[in-house]
Amino acid sequence: MKGRKGKLIVIDGGDGSGKTVQSQLLRNYLERNVYKVKYYDFPRYYSSFHGRIVGRFLAGEFGKLDDVSPYLASLAYALDRAGAKDEMDAWLAQGNIILSNRYATSSMAHQGARLPEASRKEFVSWIDELEYKVHKIPREDVVIYLYVPWKIGLELTKKKGLRGYIGGGQDIAEKDVHHRQEAEAMYVSLAKSRKNWVKIDCVEEGTILPKDIIHEKILAALKSKKII
């Protein structure tokens, strides 16, 4: 975006990786340190028309996960973000920070994971064109990828509270073990190939690290990238 002065930070990762917890810790830190922060939690299941469509998809209303093309599913996610574009652009133009829990990067990983490996690179390019060139949402400055092995993420997801958008329990992606494995492979691949991604290892010796330790790792990464 021409004239952009602010920074867009994305927190991303597989299901059960602690994205919401770390997003809130980072938001609190930034606000304590006098940064002006606008927080987004995508998809916006309750406040956006297209976010509600995503919620219905994840609740299984349109069939099983593989019944809906990842290309078609991605349109609802993308339109939800596109609805926030003008507000995001204005905030960044003022030199402020946007913190986003999930973003277009999530569609690259989760929806790309549903395709054969040979088709994934083309799909990621399609998402890039759709989100950043057609809808013109702001491109993120950094993606903090919270790496939690999928098996541990599966157990952590089971401990989550009830989600209104699916009526409780796990959504159709969260309870699909094969999808978790493939999504992890996509995230790891993206983190290796994209310069603005930082992989944060959240597990040591098979145990999830304390949230404050993970938070400190995130702060160190953001300072190293000169984001804060």
UniProtKB/TrEMBL annotation:
Signal peptide: none
InterPro entries: P-loop_NTPase (IPR027417), Thymidylate_kin-like_dom (IPR039430), Thymidylate_kinase (IPR018094)
Coiled-coil stretches: none
Residue positions binding ATP: 13-20
This protein's GO CC annotations: cytosol
Annotated EC: 2.7.4.9
First-tier enzyme category under EC: transferase
Record's catalysed reaction(s): dTMP + ATP = dTDP + ADP
Recorded GO MF terms: ATP binding; dTMP kinase activity
Start and end residues of each Thymidylate kinase-like domain: 11-202
GO BP, sorted A to Z: dTDP biosynthetic process; dTTP biosynthetic process; dUDP biosynthetic process
Listed Pfam families: Thymidylate_kin
Keywords: ATP-binding, Kinase, Nucleotide biosynthesis, Nucleotide-binding, Transferase
Domain of life: Bacteria
Family membership noted in the UniProt record: Belongs to the thymidylate kinase family.
Protein's job: Phosphorylation of dTMP to form dTDP in both de novo and salvage pathways of dTTP synthesis.
Protein name (record): Thymidylate kinase
Organism: Candidatus Gottesmanbacteria bacterium RIFOXYB1_FULL_47_11
